Amino acid sequence: MRVGPAAVTEAVEAVMIAGIGSREDFYWTLHSVFVNRREDHVVFDEAFRLYWRSRQLIEKMIAMFSPVAMDRSDREKQRAGETRANQALQNKVEQRPQKDEPEIEIDARFTSSGNEVLRSMDFAQMTAEEIAQAKQALSRLILPHDRVRTRRFKPSYRNRTVDPRATMRMSLKTGGSLILPRFREHKTVHPPLVVLADISGSMSQYTRIFLHFLHVLTEKRRRVHTFLFGTRLTNVSRQMRYRDPDEALAECSAAVPDWSGGTRISETLREFNRLWSRRVLSQGAIVLLITDGLERESVDDLPQQMERLQKSCRRLIWLNPLLRFDGFEAKAMGVRAMLPHVDEFRPVHNLDALSDLVAALEDDDRRNIDPRRFLAAAG
């Protein structure tokens, strides 16, 4: 939160004017001063709640002896912004003057930096602190500047194509005595980005970190559509538009009923092609399919659905975390059914893989791994 000395002074003056009658009045008095952006609301709410949590000790003790408290399924989920508010309060309490220690010089010419190790580390092997650092690195990724030409036109000052309508409108100002040509050119826009992410049990740790990357894309670009699927398809594009990343992921988790469950790739692709394909796949859309390809049901209809999806978009990129293994082979039936219908086959297990994906989105000619190579190797 952006809180400076001026905001603190204004908060004190506001409390002196409004007075302290109840906790709710005190909350909204400070809220009107400190919260200037929508994404600051969840952080302020958690900081205010954590500051007064000692007052809830009696309620917690009563709840411990209640029979309802014995049910582990009713545990309260972690709220959006709670982690950052906890860290901010702990840093204030645990801050101590540092002792003067002798400076030690280390020759690091033949060592690798922590940043390089983090970029090549598998998401599934990261600790909580390393995942937090990875999320910060994702927010600093340079977004692709890919643009596609549309059929619509915009005014142009280059002598390329004459705009008849604009030329006639300008001639009306002089009564037709002077006709100066006006020009136009095709408008270029960012192509839509459609993401189909697998949230089954084997993919949940990769999907959560990838959703942070999608949140950055959704915040910077207009047409980013995100769908999550396990045993059913869920559109979370609206939830991903929340400015606060923790709030966005919390809303996604609440909207998805089958997180970390099974996988029904064929059924979910059929539902997407039938209900959403014509709505979101337009103007050269790019589809990112994030899954390990391990289908638990029959794969008889999977090739037809993949073929229809590939023909409906400009590029179909399959992101598979199993590519982190050097000896990966297309032996699973789901993988063999999907590979012939994808344009690119990429890993998605670390920060370097996501950086390569960003570079590939900007350059259509940049390809990674030919999917047909795995089919030929598997026979």
Give a short summary of the structure.
Helices cover 44% and strands 12% of the residues.
How would you characterize this protein structure?
- The chain has about 375 residues and is α/β, with parallel strands linked by helices.
- The chain folds into three domains: about 1-65, no CATH class; about 150-190, no CATH class; about 195-379, von Willebrand factor, type A domain (Rossmann fold).
- About 45% of the residues lie in helices and about 10% in strands.
- The chain has helices at about 5-20, 25-35, 40-50, 55-65, 80-95, 115-120, 130-140, 165-170, 205-220, 245-255, 265-275, 275-280, 300-310, 335-340, 350-360, 370-379, and strands at about 150-155, 160, 185-190, 195-200, 225-230, 235, 285-290, 315-320, 345.
- The strands form two sheets. Strands 6-5-4-7-8-9 form a six-stranded mixed sheet. A three-stranded antiparallel sheet has the order 1-3-2.
- Specify the structural class: alpha/beta
Content of β-strand: 5-15%
- Overall mean pLDDT score? 76
* Number of self-contained structural domains: 3
CATH class label of the largest domain: Alpha Beta
How many angstroms separate the termini?
A: 57 Å
CATH topology heading of the largest domain: Rossmann fold
Contiguous uncertain segments of 5+ residues: 68-76, 104-113
Query: What is the string of SSEs from the N terminus onward?
Result: HHHHHHHEEHEEHEEHHHEHEHEHH
Shape: flat
Biggest β-sheet: strands ordered side by side in the sheet: 6-5-4-7-8-9
- The radius of gyration over CA amounts to 27 Å
Secondary structure tally: strands: 9
